[in-house]
């Protein structure tokens, strides 16, 4: 509910503003320790990325309520946004976007960590789990760049708005595609913020969609094995349908004005 989201936002904002906050039966304030504020900013930013990896990867619609709270906190407390991006890029280099190359002397285990895989006791997580986490993180990022907290006093410019999404898309299409990963990331990104990008960039956006269909999807196909075609097929169908209808559907779970009355 919208009212519940406001409670969450107010509590986080109060904590970061140095006010005492009740939690788990005790009162805490960042002023209780010289590094209190820095610690809270760090842990909070880390927590938002973990929500992407966990909550959003399993419940896709949850990207929007989480994103709108972070967007509002980012506007009032820019430090949280900076640290969030640092956590995001470390956990998911594709959010930069960047495909790390393996340097000489780097162990396979360390390289897999650089690619975003979780490695525990030399055991690498399964590909399906990895893709699901990366999908959740990108969907959260794509939601953040288009949402602003509706109750801000200043309602200034978005601290990390759609222009960053436009840049992400352009940079993504300049990279050589990776099997599995690239098709999934593009589909997730376009499903969540394609509608917003279409409204903002108009004809330039449709030129990009045409480029994806004619030039970039064949390049993804060239590096994709027959067993990895699922996501690529969904991306092809999505882009084709959008181009045919000259319309990108609104993402599922977007917060409507009526949500804030609940």
From TrEMBL:
Family per similarity comment: Belongs to the GLE1 family.
Name used for this protein in its record: mRNA export factor GLE1
Keywords recorded for this protein, A-Z: Coiled coil, Cytoplasm, mRNA transport, Nuclear pore complex, Nucleus, Protein transport, Translocation, Transport
Entry's Gene Ontology cellular component terms: cytoplasm; nuclear pore cytoplasmic filaments
GO BP terms: poly(A)+ mRNA export from nucleus; protein transport
Record localization: Cytoplasm; Nucleus, Nuclear pore complex
Molecular functions per Gene Ontology: inositol hexakisphosphate binding; phospholipid binding; translation initiation factor binding
Job description of the protein: Required for the export of mRNAs containing poly(A) tails from the nucleus into the cytoplasm. May be involved in the terminal step of the mRNA transport through the nuclear pore complex (NPC).
InterPro entries named among the record's database cross-references: GLE1, GLE1-like_sf
